[in-house]
Design brief:
With about 400 residues, the protein is α+β, with helices and mostly antiparallel strands. It is built from 16 helices and 7 strands. Among the domains are: about 120 residues, Alpha Horseshoe (Serine Threonine Protein Phosphatase 5, Tetratricopeptide repeat), CATH 1.25.40; about 90 residues, no CATH class. Strands 3-7-6-4-5 form a 5-stranded antiparallel beta sheet. Strands 1-2 form a two-stranded antiparallel ribbon.
């Protein structure tokens, strides 16, 4: 899938920064960015690459801009030149060259590059990028399925190694990656005609991360399965969250035909037949929790980490910080039924950060799940002022 960070990359270019080879920079690290369409970005990227010819991040981004602007042959040329001049370039450039060949299209050369670069030690993100590119091109779907299945299996195993009581930012980073890989696998199954399986994986991906492109894929599956009301609801939310102009245009076309199937949520005031997509997205991450305790103020809040096994069983709730009187809400939170789905019976751990809030003015308390892309950002460290004698 075009992931959340990838969506930002398609609208911005990097004019500074030093990021790990082969990895997209985290959203929090983006700076010095200039918005624009691919064809508008090309001159600035060319200038940046000329100033720093060994910057592989700029090289790969320029190759993608060329392809997105309908110039895949230019993408092939700059990548092939770099690989010829520097035989020891990281393999993510070989994968980028393979993806560029797919856009030419030259499937034979693309698969040759992929098979040269991928091996038993390939990381899930590498496997996923190739699998998604093949699905988008509609070619070699059996290989795409193999790569994607390997990636999902590897990520699932990694999540089971997480200790909810002692989490690191890298643990939370697995969640958007998992959603992206579920989306890819669901999209491949869609192209293979396995609509029930496609729906399971895309629903799980959407429940975990409400990225617009995941939503658009799910809309297509729902429409194919004649689930018009579900398609309309997801399309409305994805449109509210969409970033790229191309995706927004596609979703706008879909909502135009699905609008008659939009239903206002029960108990929600508003214009009939036109529920707010942004509000619906917020509702997906909000839950009422019956919990009562004496508050040290009119309203209090606390932060928790919630661990869910195989989409249904909460196996751990960890109090992180906040109002101490809310620490006892652990049992109430653990008893809550979450909407997170699991697409199959592979052992998987879902990790979520959440804010729990209570007020003397409301009957129940509220639990709001942090978007998985935001949860990757480390919690701020509070330093107490030094004391003087």
């Amino acid at each position: 899938m075009a992931k959340a960070v990838d969506e930002a990359e398609r609208r911005y270019i990097f004019v500074g920064g030093n990021f790990p080879i082969g990895a997209a920079p985290p959203a929090a690290a983006l700076f010095g960015l200039v918005p624009g369409k691919p064809e508008d970005l090309i001159p600035r990227l060319e200038e940046a690459l000329a100033a720093d010819p060994d910057n592989y991040a700029i090289l790969e981004r320029l190759s993608r801009a060329y392809s997105d602007a309908g110039r895949p042959a230019d993408a092939v040329a700059i990548l092939q030149k770099s690989i010829n001049d520097h035989p020891d370039v990281p393999r993510h450039l070989s994968l980028a060259l393979g993806r560029a060949y797919l856009r030419v299209p030259d499937t034979g050369k693309a698969m040759a590059m992929f098979k040269t670069a991928l091996d038993d030690e390939s990381e899930p993100e590498e496997l996923n990028s190739v699998a998604y590119a093949l699905a988008e091109a509609g070619v070699n779907l059996s290989e795409a399925l193999e790569y994607s299945t390997r990636a999902v299996s590897s990520l699932s195993s990694k999540t089971m190694d997480i200790s909810p009581d002692d989490t690191e930012p890298s643990d939370f980073a697995l969640m958007p990656e998992l959603a992206a890989n579920w989306d890819t696998l669901g999209w491949i199954k869609f192209h293979l005609g396995d609509l029930p399986a496609s729906e399971r994986y895309l629903e799980a991906a959407w429940a975990l991360m409400q990225a617009p492109d995941i939503g658009e894929h799910l809309v297509e599956v729902y429409e194919k399965r004649s689930k018009k009301e579900k398609a309309a609801a997801v399309c409305n939310m994805a449109l509210a969250a969409s970033v790229t102009s191309a995706l927004r245009e596609k979703l706008a076309g879909e909502i135009a035909r699905l609008r008659p199937f939009l239903k206002a949520p029960a108990g929600r005031l508003g214009r009939p037949g036109a529920p707010d997509g942004g509000m619906a997205l917020s509702d997906m991450r909000s839950l009422n929790i019956p919990f009562h305790t004496r508050l040290k103020g009119n309203s209090r809040s606390a932060h928790f980490v919630i661990s869910i096994i195989n989409g249904s069983r909460i196996d751990n709730v960890v109090f992180v910080s906040g109002a101490e009187e809310l620490r006892n809400a652990i049992a109430a939170i653990a008893a809550t039924k979450f909407s997170q789905l699991s697409p199959d019976d592979t052992p998987i751990r879902i990790l979520r950060k959440a804010t729990f809030s209570c007020s003397i003015y409301t009957k129940d308390c509220f639990l709001v799940l942090m978007p998985v892309t935001d949860a990757v950002v480390p919690d701020p460290v509070i330093v107490s002022p030094a004391t003087t004698n």
